[in-house]
Amino acid sequence: MVFKRDDFPVSFNVARCKKCGVCSHFCPGQAIAFDNNGYPCAKAPEKCTRCYTCFHRCPDFAVEVKDNDQHAVSAG
């Protein structure tokens, strides 16, 4: 299952996510928060700059980022 918001270019694969918080901690725009189950989700999608920091820092390859052309970049 993947949680995402249409206006947020980042999605999270909860099957891979270990809820470590690395994605949120390193997000320079503070665009990532956590839902009631502890999984990452969009906090402020307008602050996401598509810098890919969350993507590169995630130790579980649970982050997918859409580039400006809406092509998904996934590590897994």
From TrEMBL:
Domain 4Fe-4S ferredoxin-type: 8-37, 38-68
Keyword presence, Iron: yes
Entry keyword annotation includes 4Fe-4S: no
InterPro entries tied to this protein: 4Fe4S_Fe-S-bd, 4Fe4S_Fe_S_CS
Domain of life, per lineage: Bacteria
Pfam families: Fer4_10
Keyword annotations from UniProtKB, A to Z: Iron, Iron-sulfur, Metal-binding
A GO molecular function held by the record: metal ion binding
PANTHER family, per database record: FERREDOXIN SUBUNIT OF PYRUVATE:FLAVODOXIN OXIDOREDUCTASE-RELATED, IRON-SULFUR-BINDING PROTEIN
Name by which UniProt lists this protein: 2-oxoglutarate ferredoxin oxidoreductase subunit delta
Lineage, broadest ranks: Bacteria, Bacillati, Bacillota, Clostridia, Eubacteriales
